[in-house]
Amino acid sequence: MAMNPDMATTSDGAELSRLRSLTGIKWSRDPGDHLLAAWVADMDLAPAPVAVEAVQALVDRRDFGYNRHASAQLPAAFSDWQHENHGWKPDEEDLLPFSDVLHAIDMALWMHTKPGDGIVLFTPIYPPFIRAVEHGDRRLIDCPLDPDGWRLNRSTLEACIDHTTTAILMCNPHNPTGRAFDREELTAVAEVAEANDLLVISDEIWGDLTHPGATHIPFPTISAAADARSLTISAASKAFNLAGLRSAMAYVGHKDLAAQFEALPSHARGGLSTPGAESALACWTRGGPWLDEIRTHLTAQRDHLAGRLAADLPQVGFQLPEATYLMWLDLNQTGLGPDPATVIKEKAGVVLSPGEDFGHRGDGWVRLNVATSRDILDQILDRLVKLLAS
Ligand SMILES: Cc1ncc(COP(=O)(O)O)c(C=O)c1O
Hints:
The protein is α/β, with parallel strands linked by helices. It has 16 helices and twelve strands. Pyridoxal-5'-phosphate is lined by residues 41, 100-102, 126, 171, 175, 203, 205, 235, 237, 243, 248.
């Protein structure tokens, strides 16, 4: 595509040059130094310094051999972190490390459900969940959140369940809407799961990134019955910006599933990389102050985006997310058609996540990642304003 000269002008050229020199997918997947990337859920902000120091120390020591130093301490560190931040103290005995969150989800669905089983997803939904269900020939049970507030509705959930249903796969906080489900909603999930003997997989990777006024409630804290039906998975990777280092922690409250994991050949669960374990340990033990600063910035970015949308782009619909650094935007009234992300990339040079990837309810929507500098967020908005004015 020919480069639009407007797109090259930037008041923060050094930061854009740095981002464009990175090899991570966010800025390198789509070639072109006119593009602004706001799609995949990586932050443009540098990762937590404690994580960088932990990885740097490995490099300085040339310490690349088999290594259990951090991974041995990680269950205790995770349990303490959850306790201090979310009032949940998982038993270390029930924690299993995985290379990443999706790894744990795929394994659980593979072992605990069978082809033809119905798996409930709360839509619109993070695209790899759709793939996780469909790849194994499980049946996707599409349970829509209420678009007016993105609430999880008990009667909608009850109506979705049929005799084939064996699991609910949810993420809380929710990607892409940014909802942090409240006690009433999670209690509904727990009770419907109990009544229908369902496994509840609760992906809580966004749990540390709530905005002021919202609370992340770990699913196992809802009740003893919820705990005993759950696989609850988290990671340091979203909050501390470490997605490429690969590490996650799964709490297996569901005893049959725990036995299935236990019965696996010893390497089938994979394992943590040493940088993944060292960085997660550093964050969960010493990363709190950095995270506080980042959350303040992310809330300011969210509010800035919301303010500019209301002032400059009133035709764009949105609800303020309670968590995550993502904004789920309704572009159906903009005249850009059912696939606005493609039009925006071609005509404005802004790369967003296409709504259609989040299920059929996503047509006409996009997901925008605000975890960048104020200047880059403003450039993205300026381009959208110009496109929609033309
Ligand atoms: C809800 C959710 N789960 C999982 C992931 C990916 O986690 P991992 O890289 O540990 O598989 C993401 C990434 O954005 C996510 O939003």
